[in-house]
Design a protein that fits this description.
Blueprint lengths: L9 H15 L9 E7 L2 E8 L3 H19 L7 H8 L1 E3 L2 H16 L9 H7 L1 H5 L10 E2 L4 H8 L8 E3 L4 E3 L12 H15 L4 E6 L2 E6 L7 E6 L7 E7 L3 E7 L4 E4 L4 E3 L14 E8 L2 H14 L1 H10 L5 E6 L4 E4 L6 E2 L5 E4 L5
Parallel strand pairs: 4-12, 16-18
Antiparallel strand pairs: 1-2, 2-7, 3-6, 5-6, 7-8, 8-11, 9-10, 10-17, 11-14, 12-13, 14-15, 15-16
The protein binds adenosine-5'-diphosphate (ADP) and magnesium ion (MG).
Magnesium ion binds next to helix 9.
């Protein structure tokens, strides 16, 4: 069995590790965190915890990751989500209730850019096969891409407006052919759950890195700020900049550079789809990073803002600017940072432009 794990973010981890080493230089002392690597959701996950309850926090985090993986994985026919898809709905548990509410709310607020019903399209494009645990396809191997007729057909099942969800009875109803996938939000939900669990366990600070999803909380023993490397979409082995945070935040990145398939036409087709066209989102962004308190929101918004592109994402931020901040790299290799992060992003390589609430 050949599995493909997501290693993007490795540059980010390395940069952050180097920075924190030089910043505190406390190797091998009690100020050092304990850490754990978990492989789940086709992602390499690295979790660090500080304080005397750190080991318990890591044990509980690992259990939670495995529980959520079993619940949400569309790659496994026994997951709760796969069963809902097969049965056309059913009663859902508390996790799926939270995920559905957030997904449907971001669907509405983004005019349908974030849409969990893209799953039949993901299947049609073959993204699910490339990343399926038993599949051996390579993302650089030239493959057939769907025909326009196949996409038109699949689009007849796509649209979260087709979903009926009764939150009071936690009952989901999916019309024939409509299927859901929490791939655009599951890792953010998972990191949020881990933060909540670790806090309850008495962990004093932690850094959760689930591929491109990062979430930090608490204060480190040496009180140094959190530094998070931002992967450079132009060369994923390095960082485009570093974000400094003094408070706990989720930092979630979406981009077209990481997961893709290659068509026989030699073109790359990335895995973030425009639910309106059925094709990979024709975004003028290379990557977008959302910074906010809640991991679940950050993840849904990162996918949605990538689909919307720079101008619409900027307009959305202006409309909701109390709730999140954003770092974008556009197709001209310019970094744009919303005003709430002014001074918190440093880059040696790229010029940083600040987006204020009023000006472009
Ligand atoms: P990653 O999974 O690489 O962190 P994202 O958070 O942007 O990146 O999620 C991409 C995943 O979300 C896809 O693999 C697919 O499962 C799902 N997806 C793709 N397009 C959309 C969309 N427009 N809305 C919601 N989910 C999407
Ligand atoms: Mg996302």
């Amino acid at each position: 069995m050949k599995r493909k794990y997501r290693i993007a973010g490795a540059a980010a981890v390395l940069a952050a590790a180097l920075l924190s080493l030089t910043a505190c230089g406390s190797f091998g002392t009690s100020a050092e965190p304990v850490s754990r690597q978990v492989i789940a959701m086709t992602t390499v996950m690295n979790i660090k915890a500080y304080g005397k309850n750190a080991e318990k926090g890591l044990d509980d985090s690992e259990k939670e990751i495995n529980r959520l993986d079993r619940l949400l994985s569309v790659g496994s026919s026994t997951s709760a989500v796969s069963k809902l898809n097969a049965a056309g709905g059913g009663t859902v548990n508390a996790d799926i209730d939270t995920l559905l509410k957030k997904s449907l709310s971001v669907y509405k607020s983004t005019g349908g850019a974030f849409d969990i019903t893209v799953y039949p399209l993901m299947n049609l494009w073959g993204f699910t096969k490339v990343y399926n645990e038993n599949d051996e396809l390579d993302q650089n191997k030239p493959r057939d891409i769907p025909t326009a007729a196949q996409i038109t057909q699949a689009l007849t099942t796509v649209g979260s407006n087709r979903i009926q969800y009764d939150a009071a009875s936690r009952t989901l109803t999916l019309p024939a052919g409509t299927q859901i996938d929490f791939g655009g939000i599951a890792k953010g939900y998972t990191s949020q759950r881990i933060v909540d669990i670790m806090k309850k366990d008495g962990v004093t600070a932690g850094n959760i890195e689930l591929g491109g999803n990062v979430q930090v909380f608490g204060t480190k023993p040496d009180k140094s700020p959190w530094t998070i490397g931002l992967t450079d979409p132009n060369k994923t082995s390095r960082t485009m900049g570093v974000l400094t945070l003094t408070k706990g935040r989720a930092v979630v990145t979406s981009g077209g550079y990481e997961r893709y398939i290659t068509g026989k036409d030699g073109k790359r087709y990335h895995h973030i789809l425009d639910p309106k066209t059925g094709y990979p989102a024709d975004s003028d962004l290379k990557s977008v990073t959302i910074v906010c308190k809640d991991g679940t929101t950050a993840d849904a918004l990162s996918t949605a803002m990538f689909v919307l592109g720079k101008d619409k994402a900027t307009a959305y931020w202006r409309h909701h600017s109390g709730t999140f901040q954003m770092i974008m790299m556009d197709s001209q290799k310019r970094i744009w940072v919303t005003s709430g992060l002014k001074g918190q992003v440093q880059s040696d390589r790229y010029k940083i432009r600040v987006i204020s609430r009023g000006n472009k």
